[in-house]
Design brief:
The complex is a heterodimer.
Chain A lengths: L1 H22 L4 E5 L15 H10 L4 E3 L6 E3 L2 E6 L5 E6 L4 E5 L6 E7 L2 H12 L17 H5 L8 H7 L2 E5 L2 E5 L7 H4 L10 H7 L10 E2 L3 E7 L3 E6 L15 E5 L4 H9 L5 E3 L5 H6 L3 H4 E14 L9 H9 L3 H9 L4 E2 L32 H14 L9 E7 L2 H17 L4 E7 L1 H8 L11 E7 L9 H5 L18 H16 L3 H18 L3 E13 L3 E2 L12 E2 L1 H9 L1
Parallel strand pairs in A: 1-13, 17-18, 17-19
Antiparallel strand pairs in A: 2-3, 4-5, 5-9, 6-7, 6-10, 8-9, 11-12, 12-13, 14-20, 15-19, 15-20, 16-20, 21-22
Helix pairs in contact in A: 11-13, 17-18
Chain B lengths: L14 H11 L1 H19 L3 H4 L43 H36 L2 H15 L3 H18 L3 H12 L3 H28 L2 H8 L4 H37 L11 H8 L8 H28 L7
Helix pairs in contact in B: 1-12, 2-4, 2-12, 4-5, 4-8, 4-10, 4-12, 5-8, 6-8, 8-10, 9-10, 10-11, 10-12, 11-12
Classes of the chains: A alpha+beta, B mainly alpha.
Chain lengths: ~575, ~325
Amino acid sequence: MKGARIGLLIVAVMGLLLWPALGQEKVVLHYNLGTEPPTADPALAEDTTSVNIIEQMFMGLTDLAEDDYSPIPELATSWEVNEDATEFIFHLRNDVHWVHCDPATGEVTKLDRLVTAYDVEYGVLRTLDPRSGSYYAAVLLIIEGAAEFNSADPEAENFLELRDAVGVEALDEWTIKFTLRAPAAYFLQIASMWVARPQPQWVIEEHGEQWIEPGNIVTNGPYCMKEWVHEDHMVMVKNPYWPDWDKVDGNIDEIYFTMVQEASTAFAMYLNNELDVGPVPLPEMDRVKADPVLSKELTIRPIPCTYYYGFITTKPPVDDPRVRRALSMAIDRVTLVEEVTKGGQIPANTFAPEMIFGSAAGDTSIAPWALPEEMGGWGYERAVEEARRLMAEAGYPDGEGLELLLMHNVSEGHARIAQAIQAMWLEVFPKASIRIETQEWKVYLTTLKPDTPIENQPHIYRLGWCMDYPDQNNWVHEVFNPEEGSNWVRMSFDDPYVGEAIRRFSELTIQAQMTRDPAERQALYREAERLLVDEIAAIAPIYYYTEVVLTKPWLSRRWHEINHYETWVLDMEAKMAARGG
Amino acid sequence: MFRGKKPKKARSRGPFRDAFHQLLKHRAAVVAGLYILLMIIFALFADTSIISLPFGKEVRPLIALQHYAKTSFRNRDLPPGTPGYPLGTDYLGRDIWSRTVYGTRVSLSVAFVAATVSLLIGLTYGVISGFARPAIDNIMMRFVDFLYGFPLLIFIILLQAYFKAVSRAGATGFMGLLTQLDRAMGGLFFVFLALGMLNWIGMARLARGQTLSVKQKEYIEAARALGASNLRIVFRHILPNIIGPCIVAETLAIPGYILTEAFLSFIGLGVTPPTPSWGLMISDTYQAIRVYPWECLIPGAALTLTTLAFNFLGDGLRDALDPRLRGT
């Protein structure tokens, strides 16, 4: 009897001792980045993975709204824009501290420094500095003097002068002013990008390239980096000094990022409750949709990205716009998205998807052949008829004598799409010879760059484009303008077939950049899209991407374009129960 | 004269006839041989291209039910046993039976071409090296040693990458001819070239060693004493005596070639799609193994069985051709 009482007492004491520990269990999110982030440096990031982790650690001047990507306050509480949209003054909040996270304990300390306009100015100038070698500095070149500074020789005498001449200036600690070389209403959205974030000058100068390593890095966003085991995992912990915790519902204390590349492995980990968010590998799509549990955890939503095939427009035989149009027409986009990609993708008839300002997606006066009849287009049968006619007119009846090389980067998904499109083309042009070649991503990009000799390039290449900021300028202009954009399709004003149209296209996107009136800009971009996709047919847009993700029932998340983990809510008890069982 | 029945006198048999009889006693080898024969028939008569060649008629599928590239998107991922698709369809609705049958063409032509090339080069090189003066032998073998030091697979991958680049750039002249040939063969020609160019070195070593040991034999000395020329000695006395082990070694190397081709296709450096190589079929579908297992298991089984068959045949041949090893 006595023994039982003592036993009870021990249990009670133990329970009391354990109680606080149980109650304060850390809420941990397990998320797969899919790859090692190439960098955590806001000046150097160029890919979605890096941007994702930078978003957690550094606050932007503005942020993009969850639903319509409009600019909303983040570090800047308000802003003033002058009449012709060339001067932007941002007023910064004065309660954001720089913080440092101890890699051993995960303890976050508040530094005796606030984030000021000078940090933003330094960040912008460091991004633009030619010695940084930032690829994305390109989006900042709209700032006055930025292009000159970005292309200057660091050894030159007037280097510092050029630096000072850049149109970014901290007027005082809480005010920063940008002067642009041309009107750009979309600059408020550029201000949300990672290239214009505050950067800690003293840390960068002390540690050099190593400043982004845990222990060195100093940040100001809702999470900070505790651990980064390269090619393996990264751990971020909540920054309790981030001022807006009372304005968001999120409860996640720690994020454990894995870097599993194979979608099938990540999917298996998700099924095994090792990840809270999981991908759906293409081959598993049918199974997930049919599964009573998984189908409820599945979310498919459009994202602002486009999958397209580009034509090297100066390489015969695709130098003939009739051949290009015929090829574009002969892609059965509806069958492709329903039977091959299977992720609810939307057949594309323009380059920019719907969410982008100035997009003409679904406009049936542009490349109507790409759209099914329900969407007001021609439907595939009529498109095929026209494609056959055009191909014969160009001198390749039934594809006779047509030899094409299609290239894509190594990936199972791209291979499937390429083989499906190859089959569609061979069905319509049975005598053509269409070869597919693959290259590893980095090699592939080198092959596509315009300084590669044209004989080493394919006729047709695959690429996707995702928005950096939601404006057509980021699409038709920056990607395809023959004078100022990347123009990997090699359009040239001397084109014997459509040279005039190419010149008009170029003028239109430049004019649209300078125009303020939204309706007028919209009209200019609509015409530019029509030229690009229909008349010149430099690209064959295929579909607008969707994001296909599985989310565990214990996680309720939001759908910002870049994940905002501070708004996610996770039921740790349910998660532990599932993992334990 | 003898009366009645002739006495049963063992008829003298040539060494190859003898070997053939020995081979027939090796049951696994016989099954393997029949299997390979079946594969050869599949490869030759997958469609009517050989039959129709002299008549210029249109090619129709024969053993295969459809052309290997025929897609039918609405019939994708059908399981084996579906009417019209005995082994099911893949992710683009292509008939797996047809693709596997056509796949034998790729695998067997790789097996035979690479083996022949390697045997021809290796044997010639090895015999010359073994028969020639020690100084020449030395130089020739150091070259082989040098090649041996190369990581073969990496070299083949580099070669393939180079050939592909040349082919893309649209070469003219001799290389242009080769690229044309390669295109006509669905990307196979350069696989042959890469495999054949490098796999003869093992054969060369073997042939040299055999030549060296045979060279010491009394019958060679006798032939020499009788005034036989070098050529006669090589062709009449050395080659017939060393060819057995060489053929055995080559047969046993064939599975390696088939697997290398499958591997090259798997990583995208082999045949060009939609040419159905088993390796390519596996690499296209292995991620769906849980959902549509037949799509990669069927070509996988074909690949496994074929390599097994060549291994068994090689075993049988070794037993038959090399009496000393019999039964080990």
